[in-house]
Amino acid sequence: MSLAIGIVSGGLDSLLAMHLVRNMGFRVLALHFVTGFESALLRRLRADPAAPLEPPQPLHKTAAATGSDLETVDVRSEFLDLLVAPPHGFGSNLNPCLDCKIGMLRHARRIMEERGGELVFTGEVLGQRPMSQHRQALDLIERESGLGGRLLRPLSGRLLPATEPERRGSLKREALLAIRGRSRKEQMALAREFGLADYPAPAGGCLLTDPGYASRVRALMERRPGRRLRANDPLLLLLGRHAALPGGGRAFVGRNQEENLCLARYQATGTLCEAREVPGPSTLVEAPHTAADLEAAARLTAWYGKGRDRPRVTVACRSADGRVETLEVAPAFPEGCRLFGEAG
Predict the structure, then answer these.
(1) H or E segment at 316?
(2) How many helices and strands, by DSSP H and E, does the chain display?
(3) What is the pLDDT of residue 131?
(4) Which residue ranges in the chain fall short of pLDDT 50?
(5) 3-194 is classed in which CATH architecture?
(6) CA 338 from centroid of its chain's CA atoms
(7) What is the spatial distance between Cα 249 and Cα 246, in angstroms, rounded to a whole number?
């Protein structure tokens, strides 16, 4: 039985592609790539920083149902490098979809060659996504991934050129589908046929497609040397109110107890501000920062807390080395401070 390597997100299209390729007689190895910007992963990490890089539950179920092997591929560091200047640019927000897909397919191609596979498949649908799934984009992705003739899109395969397995006769073209466009009616009908009921809504995966989150990422990249983000940044950018401080620093202001606890876990990356006498948020001030930044962060902490109507609030600011500086501040939204788009 020939081996097919699949790139699977856990969305409906990739789950259907697993079923289709398995029904064609291939043994399937499904690869779930983790870039670090998946909304479901970041929400798990917000609640539990030790949460494993587990594929979504629907993927586990489909792998079991189809007898497929399932592996997670961690490309988080590589993806942060890519985000600095993707060769094919960004989509409508900060999503480097073309280069992201090309990078994943290059990984899949290497695994296919190492393990003696015959083809790589995806759940892509012709015309479904404006940046990465029109015909020219699909051709570009296939060419630059080095998978010419060995990349199968089974949901739209009859609308695309024949692959090498089709030409050799090891894959029957009539087994492929001819789905096109943004409607999911055909996929939903096929899901019922395969008994798939547990799958996520579309466009709910990568947070870089979210305008509010993307604006935070852009603002932080402008502050970073070489525009390169750090490993913890994707989660921090999901937390709280994200503020640019008057001195050029950045602060993350918790909106609830869960976010306060999560921000406290990242104290080693800066200074944590908390009001002493009244309930309020935890505010993480990213290092390096100025004295003016710290005072502005303390005022934000007081402004968003229960002491907002007091003339002065005592705020304790604990630095990464454990030193505590106490500031008496008037609660106010500091002049020269601005918030970036809400996220999460």
Answers:
(1) strand 313-318
(2) 12, 12
(3) 81
(4) none
(5) 3-Layer(aba) Sandwich (3.40)
(6) 25
(7) 7
